[in-house]
Amino acid sequence: MSLQLFRVHVRVPILLLAAIEAALFYFVPYLAASVQQVPNHDLPHAGIGWTAALFAGFCLFSQFSVGLYTTRQRSSFAGLAIRITVAMAFAVGLAALTFYLVPALQFDRRTLALTGLFALGFSLATRLLFERTVDQDMFKSRVLIYGAGRMAASVLGLRRRSDQRGFRIVGFVATSADVRVPADRVVSMPVDLLDWAVEHDVDELVVAMDDRRVGFPLHEFLECRLAGIGVLELPTFLERETGRVHLDILNPSWIIFADGFGASQLQRMLERTFDLVASASLLLLGSPLMLLAALAIKIEDGWQAPVVYRQRRVGQFNKIFDVVKFRSMQVDAEAGRGAQWAVRDDPRVTRCGAILRKTRIDELPQLWNVLRGDMSFVGPRPERPEFVDTLEQRIPYYRERHTVKPGITGWAQLCYPYGSSEKDALEKLQYDLFYVKNRSLLFDLAILLQTVEVVLWGKGAR
User: Fold this and answer.
1) Strand partners of residue 173
2) Torsion angle (degrees, nearest 10) of CA 316, 436, 249, 2
3) Which residues, other chains included, contact 96 with Cβ-Cβ below 8 Å and sequence gap of 6+?
4) Of the candidates 275, 18, 42, the residue with the CA atom closest to the CA atom of residue 123
5) Are 425 and 307 in contact (CB under 8 A)?
6) What is the pLDDT of residues 8-62, one digit of tens each?
7) Hey, what long-range contacts does 10-15 have (CB within 8 A, 24 or more apart)?
8) Alpha carbon distance 427, 160 (integer Å)
């Protein structure tokens, strides 16, 4: 079961976990002050409440940044403990900096350190207890699939555990002789669909008929909808549960009539303002790191070797622009061979380039592209014209990803590893279309925060 907040689907269990941890993070500064027996005159002048609220906010921000509030999180408990430790260290660092800049909120160092330790311990204990005691099924929607053919069988084809966390299938209703799901999952055609759904506590009815021209039960669906049972199409259901648009069951009418696939003038203005402020700030703050990267490239390849390279990419509305990146491959990487996909352990990558790619430092010059307006911070990955020409001919709806600006990071980059083939391009397109449909400033901010996890753990780099 999930809730939609500003076009971002949030799982109820994750929301509950975040709420519990937020309350604990707010409580720990009080506990640390009590254990330390801090006198009243040593407490923050603005009141401990503001300090506790700020610390809780820093903890939630840090844990979200390292991927602790996403359905994609599948680490072992040891991996979870490492992530929580990193998050708490970052939160304490943010708190220390804030309290230094705003003395009225300041804790002494021992109390702040103890607060961080308490927060770490409570977070580890909470997640361990939550995993063992909370019945995840109580948060799952009970779903009846109306259909048992090719389209309905695609629900059973979901392999990722995270794709199946939000629902539980009550059964499949066979609407034709073409049955593609196991017989034990098929239920008899109900005489009264509403009564059957109420009797079996169905929360949602998913329409997955291969052919709606025959036997479409309009009256029964209307009764269910008016009785409070959700009725939705299979593409919408799978989009919500998997975070991607499934091309194998998609039809153009769904794109035309579905919510999303557009942005207001205000949203575009806010996005552009954010891009300008953030890219200018990061260029300023990251300039020392960029100078070190340039120096490292020169030391390895010689003082005559170029530091950056420009490469033609396809932007919004198929406009061609030159992307700027730190050079991570040999100078003649494509000499005589033309455009090629990057592959794992690519022999063309230099020693310095391997580090730049792993840490994503090679992407920093793209901030200039953001300032120019060629790119945005968040969006589909910009591809080369040589690849786009081929992919648009072979993959349906590929052109639609170019209705928005390409980005330095994006939803597809978070959800799918580095693409190096036509098959990968097809898989990533499904996530790109999900982003194009559901884009919002809040969704962009969520993607940027989760990108921190990708950088820290070096996911998907080649």
Assistant:
1) 146, 187
2) 170
3) 109, 112
4) 18
5) no
6) 556 677 788 889 999 999 999 888 888 876 555 455 544 578 888 999 999 998 8
7) 11/71, 11/139, 11/165, 11/166, 12/139, 13/134, 13/136, 13/139, 13/165, 14/69, 14/70, 14/71
8) 14
Helix, strand, coil percent content, the chain, rounded in steps of 5: 55, 10, 30
How far are the Cα atoms of 61, 325, 446 from residue 452, in angstroms, in the given order?
11, 19, 10
Distances (CA, A) of 233 to 67, 114, 157, 265: 30, 51, 17, 29
3-state class (DSSP) for residue 408: strand
Mean pLDDT of all residues belonging to the chain: 84
pTM of the model: 0.76
Alpha carbon of 436 to those of 90, 113, 220, 247, 457: distances in Å? 32, 43, 33, 14, 26
Strands annotated E in 293-420: 308-314, 320-326, 376-378, 407-409
Which residue has tokens 């969704």? 443
CA distance 206 to 332: 54
- Is residue 242 a contact partner of residue 163, using CB atoms and an 8 Å limit? yes
Contact, 245 vs 430, CB < 8 A? yes
Return d(Cα 282, Cα 379) in angstroms, integer.
18
- In this structure, are residues 290 and 365 in contact, taking their beta carbons and an 8 Å threshold? yes
CA distance 115 to 88: 10
**How do beta strands 230-233 and 308-314 pair?**
unpaired
Rounded to 10°, the helix 385-394/422-438 angle is: 90
Following DSSP, what letter does each residue of 234-270 receive, concatenated? HHHHHHHHHSS--GGG--HHHHHHSS-S---HHHHHH
- Nearest CA to 421 out of 390, 396, 380 is that of 390
Helix axes 109-133, 48-65, angle to 10 degrees: 50
| Residue that is written with structure tokens 């392999």 in the block | 159
Measure CA of the first residue to CA of the last residue in the chain; give whole Å: 36
Is the separation of the CB atoms in 86 and 78 below 8 Å? no
Report the C-alpha gap between 65 and 90 in whole angstroms: 10
Contact at 8 Å (CB) between 30 and 24? no
DSSP codes joined into one string, 38-79: --GGGS-TT-HHHHHHHHHHHHHHHHHHTTTTSTT----HHH
pLDDT digits (tens, 9 = 90+) for 261-288: 877 888 889 899 999 999 999 999 999 9
Q: Which residues of 17-53 are buried (b: 16+ CB within 10 A; e: fewer)?
A: bbebbeebbbebbbbbbeeeebeeeebbeeebeebbe
